[in-house]
Amino acid sequence: MTLNEALQKYDELQQKLFALNYASSSIYLDSVTVAPSNTAAGRSLALGVLSGLVYPLAYGDETGELLEFLTQHKAELSPQKAREVEESKRAYDETHLMPQEEYVEYSVLLNDAQDVWHKAKNADDFPSFAPYLAKIFDANRRQAAYIDSTKAPYDALLNQYERGLTMEQLDAFFSQLRDTIVPLIHRIQTEGAAIDDSFLYKHYPLDKQRELSDYLMEVLAIDRTHCTIGETEHPFTLNFDKNDVRITTHYHENSLASSMYSVIHESGHALYELGIGDEYQHTSLAGGVSMGIHESQSRLYENMFGRSEEFINLIYPKMLELFPEQLAGVTAHQFYLAVNKAEPSLIRTESDELTYSLHIMVRYEIEKMMLSGQATVEELPTLWAAKMKEYLGVDVPSDREGVLQDSHWSGGMIGYFPSYALGSAYAAQFVERMKQDVDVSKCLAEGDFKTLNAWLGEHIHQYGGFYPPTQLFENCCGAKFDANYYTEYLKNKYMKIYGLE
Amino acid sequence: MTLNEALQKYDELQQKLFALNYASSSIYLDSVTVAPSNTAAGRSLALGVLSGLVYPLAYGDETGELLEFLTQHKAELSPQKAREVEESKRAYDETHLMPQEEYVEYSVLLNDAQDVWHKAKNADDFPSFAPYLAKIFDANRRQAAYIDSTKAPYDALLNQYERGLTMEQLDAFFSQLRDTIVPLIHRIQTEGAAIDDSFLYKHYPLDKQRELSDYLMEVLAIDRTHCTIGETEHPFTLNFDKNDVRITTHYHENSLASSMYSVIHESGHALYELGIGDEYQHTSLAGGVSMGIHESQSRLYENMFGRSEEFINLIYPKMLELFPEQLAGVTAHQFYLAVNKAEPSLIRTESDELTYSLHIMVRYEIEKMMLSGQATVEELPTLWAAKMKEYLGVDVPSDREGVLQDSHWSGGMIGYFPSYALGSAYAAQFVERMKQDVDVSKCLAEGDFKTLNAWLGEHIHQYGGFYPPTQLFENCCGAKFDANYYTEYLKNKYMKIYGLE
């Protein structure tokens, strides 16, 4: 085989994987948006067969040999092609030990689990979901060994979402967060000025909330010819390619902020995908580089931008236009305070910026215990309640508002949650770096998202998977990651909001 | 290769084709419902690659040999397996002469054409669509030769949608229809009582029309856990499998009957798919057997059931509840007359039952001319206007209301239209046969669609592709197809409606 033949074969392989991934994405999107409720069986069969077509292309022996050959000729490849091969090889190395049968079974399991979780959440029926979750955790334990049997299983899984991330790093990181957040919450509860957010829970008609979503996406300068919004049980972003990105939200009739900040959060993800360089399209470098970096973008738009006072001032006239009765007598400043009210609560996606990381810690602790065999699926509801009490001081009244609230585990994403907290911390450091080049406050006040998006596009988005996450981060910030940026940001913001010294 | 090995290989092949077809259906459905407007490029790439995966499985040499081997062992196969192989072989024989490259290009062309047609229709811009349509007609001419080079090209294409159907048969059929319909329309226009249908064109809010759709599907006893309704430019039915069927409609704010009868029409298609026997799932016998039989079901529900006076009486209380102002002072009988008003018009899908076949004749004549080289794509708008004037006596004010109105040609379906007229005629004969077993009029009056659906299920739906269409028809009716049933039905119905002797 000549190098040219190998390269041609490799490019064909990438196109096939793109197409099969495109197909699965489409089937998944349909299943969580418009598919009739009783249709999982045919979908499982189709997804199983499709994953059986993916396996040999991505993880088969012939592909292994091809990637090995290209790796040996790395010096002769363009920098981009070399990185593409490196990423394909990494995916191959992490999965090829898993037998094809197991790979297919897992894809069928996840499709079924998605359906069962959805119904279980609606019916507040954890036991019906438990057997599926047990299988998912079992499969992830086995997969951890395939990925790297020398690592602790949870470390192997964390690595899938943020390369090189370990429990040791996370323990230190979360410990630092806790040392800032817990005393701060305590001071807020004892000394802070009271904040009224009751108006956020009035009746907000869904059609007006839909209008708000469109308006927010317009303000954030999202090109709607490349990005639509849909409605699902759990909000998410899905990218077919850089020119075709979908976000979803979930509207609640008696809560304004829930969907509002979901839309801004998912828009952050979408802007990342929409901004990736054309040259990486349909290759192994397409898409955001890691979940930590991805969540840094979503959390940055949601919090550093979306929960800033400048942004609230910018959008408030439109809010009053859409919800004149609900917001009668409420000033923009009061609205700003309300969407930043720090208060321990049950639902992660609706929690405030300060207590948010405590929700992540609950999931992190539980995942650690599950992977190390210290807890079983049956114990999860009890464990969840205990951890929520320990970290947030709240009582969990139902599994629906507890262990069933998120779709990550039913989707097989174990080790994903820490990315949210890490992403939030990355975001704080990104914004500090950004301020050296751009007057962020002025851009937010004027709604100049073109400038903000362009800076993030230039420093982060455009690179797709070209730079590994740590290198991308350090290229952008000119420094190593430092969680102090985040803790300082939280302290400054919340001390001010609550009138503390 | 033993017979058992061959059968196992064949079953795996069918599952793969099911999954790849499922994927393409999902991608298509997404593209015409919720996909952002500017996303055709990635979709084309994905669909092209997927069709490149389909080709060797369905039409490759190895598959040809496998099907040949199984055909030789036909006597040893179960009746169902023998028919499965026969249908797979037929598909193979019709397509394997087409080079894979051409097959893939055609699938990409259809995806692009769908997008271009959609935009061209909205902008009333035929020239932008013309080059795509020219390519589609060229491709169909070539395909006709691959299917059967001994036949006239249009006969070869007709055969794809209704086995064995020829221009000779259709010329006779349409000639008989014309001999009934044209003088009848003439009498209606000169001697018929005037029918007021102006109230059908008042303002009908979309949300109320959506409620009506749900109500109609409930009345027709469609299991919504297996069938949803969406919104598209052009209504259609799509089946993932017998447990997952989607219908779509297009709401017009100033027309009630348009979507109403689209929903009933597509429900007829859906009930056929939902009623197919489990044993044919995910095989070459899944799905309705031919387009003629499929349209017989949709047209039967739309017209023989949906436009009957019993049905209107049944649903009218709900109509009044949904549209009290629009229908104020209108009786059920007046409504019945209005939805049956015979009047030459521009849009096929909104035309009445009597003039409908004339619309089909326009398309049939044009397709014949295009396939025999007597007309070019550039001439289509002029030709369309001339034929509409000739058959229906109407002037065509725009291409949007003319040659661009239907999505069939952009979807590559050339030779499909005659199925609609043929299906309507089949339906008339089916209903006459049905009346021997079931009191159709009473069922309609009482809304007993369970009984009606069950009869059609037992005599038609359950068989899927097991019996070839002619055999299915004759098994059901105990007689050969006879267009007199249809012409008699039309004469009786319309003479009565218009008070003619």
Protein traits:
homodimer, mainly alpha, 501 residues, Neurolysin, domain 3, 2 domains, globular, 63% helix
How many separate domains make up the residues of chain A? 2
CATH fold description of the largest domain in chain A: Neurolysin, domain 3
Query: Which pair of chains forms the biggest interface, and how many residues does each contribute?
Result: A-B, 44 and 44 residues
Q: Separation of termini of chain A?
A: 70 Å
Strand line-up of the largest beta sheet of chain A: 1-3-2
CATH architecture field of the largest domain in chain A: Orthogonal Bundle
* Beta-strand percentage range of chain A: under 5%
Helical/strand content category of chain A: mainly alpha
Main beta-sheet strand count, sense and barrel state of chain A: 3 strands, mixed
What's the order of the H and E elements of chain A? HHHHHHHHHEEEHHHHHHHHHHH
> What does the radius of gyration of chain A come to?
23 Å
**E-strand count of chain A:** 3
Secondary structure: helix percent of chain A:
55-70%
Q: Could you give a short description of this structure?
A:
The first copy, chain A, is mainly α and about 500 residues long. Chain A contains 20 helices and 3 strands.
Verbal overview:
The structure is a homodimer of 501-residue chains. In chain A, a hairpin with a 2-residue loop joins strand 2 and strand 3. Chain A has 501 residues and is mainly alpha-helical. The first copy, chain A, has helices at residues 3-33, 40-59, 61-72, 79-95, 100-123, 126-147, 153-161, 167-191, 206-219, 257-274, 291-305, 309-322, 332-338, 356-371, 380-392, 418-434, 440-446, 449-459, 469-477, 484-497; strands at 227-231, 237-241, 244-249. In chain A, 63% of the residues lie in helices and 3% in strands. Chain A contains 20 helices and 3 strands. In chain A, strands 1-3-2 form a 3-stranded mixed sheet, with helices on both faces. The longest helix of chain A has 31 residues, at 3-33. The mean pLDDT of chain A is 96. Chain A folds into 2 domains: 3-129; 167-497, Neurolysin, domain 3 (Orthogonal Bundle), CATH 1.10.1370.30. In chain A, helix 1 (3-33) packs across helix 3, helix 2 packs antiparallel against helix 5 (100-123) and helix 12 packs across helix 13. Chains A and B meet through helix 1, helix 2, strand 1 and strand 3 of A and helix 1, helix 2, strand 1 and strand 3 of B.
